[in-house]
Design brief:
The protein is about 15% helix and about 35% strand. It is mainly β and about 290 residues long. The protein has a single domain, classed as Fumarylacetoacetate hydrolase, domain 2. The strands form 5 sheets. Strands 1, 2, 3, 4, 5 and 15 form a 6-stranded antiparallel beta sheet that branches. Strands 7-6-18-11-12 form a 5-stranded mixed beta sheet, with helices on one face. It is globular. The chain starts with 8 loop residues before the first strand and ends with a helix.
């Protein structure tokens, strides 16, 4: 049976009495595998997987391509987040004090369930452990220096929250992704809007890269990624999968000045502000 079929099944991973534990949802409680229960509101969440790598597609939703006035997409391009970017449901998102463009990007995460290498598209669904909402957080202030590689933009500690759990038995191809900022919908897109489906991405990546159990593939974000501010609550909801929630806080900037500083240029703003930047430019010209 592939990940899209069967009854919906979700597992969540929490820290309980100093140990990681797997749980299932039982109303307003979480049930541990030994039968003990705790209130969901009291749970301290952990990411629902332990990846060896986190692979991400650059541009995939048609609405985002239109927003950025990009040409039609012929082939996907990818980047990688370090595993130290992992974060969890209700975790804090840290914005360094010298940055101002910390953007949300709501996404569907596909989590690998068994080793994948050279698997064709129609068989990829059998290799997926499940799906989860995710947020491909990025400090766009470093866009000028990362040259598309995203190492600092998307790779800072905690910049990959995922959860609350991992879900199978949901045909995510029929799901809708929504991002909320302080309770207001700020992104919305049908998964069917993807230019390159999840099966295409996995088949493409595993031609040359062995995907291992627990590995995460972030599958793209729709239009309207924008900066967050300290104190903001950002939530990513995918129908059938649940809702991931995180809060932004300011943290001190690095103590030394080695390396490239954050910048505030048109190139940075074009990505951080998206359609708002384009509208501003048109207003200046008009």
């Amino acid at each position: 049976m592939n990940v899209l079929e069967g009854e919906r099944f979700e597992q969540r991973r929490i820290l309980f009495q100093g140990r990681p534990e797997w749980t299932t949802v039982d109303g307003d409680s979480l049930r541990l595998m030994d039968g003990r229960q705790l209130a969901e509101s009291e749970a301290v969440y952990l990411p629902p997987c332990e990846p060896t790598k986190i692979l991400c597609i650059h541009l995939n939703y048609e609405s985002r391509r239109i927003e950025f006035r990009a040409p039609d997409l012929v082939t996907p391009t990818y980047f990688q987040k370090p595993v130290s970017a992992l974060n969890s449901h209700r975790g804090m998102l840290n914005r360094p004090d010298n940055c101002q463009y910390l953007n949300y990007e709501g996404e569907v995460a596909a989590i690998i369930g068994r080793p994948m290498k050279n698997v064709p598209r129609d068989e990829t669904w059998h290799y997926i452990a499940g799906f989860a909402p995710a947020n491909d957080v990025g400090a766009q202030d470093f866009r000028d220096t990362d040259a598309g590689g995203m190492t600092r933009v998307k790779g800072m500690d905690g910049f990959c929250p995922i959860g609350p759990g991992i879900v199978r038995g949901v045909d995510v191809r029929r799901s809708t992704l929504r991002t909320y900022l302080n309770g207001k919908v700020v992104q919305e897109g049908e998964v069917a809007e993807m230019t390159f489906g999840i099966d295409y991405q996995l088949a493409d990546l595993c031609r040359h890269i062995t995907l291992m159990p627990g590995d995460i593939v972030l599958t793209g974000t729709p239009a309207n990624s924008r900066p967050m501010q300290p104190g903001d609550r950002v939530e990513v909801e995918v129908t059938g999968l649940g809702r991931l929630s995180n809060t932004v806080q300011n943290v001190p900037a690095p103590a030394h000045d080695v390396g490239h500083d954050p910048t505030d240029t048109d190139a940075v703003r074009r990505v951080a502000l998206g359609g708002d930047w384009w509208a501003e430019q048109e207003a200046k010209q008009g």
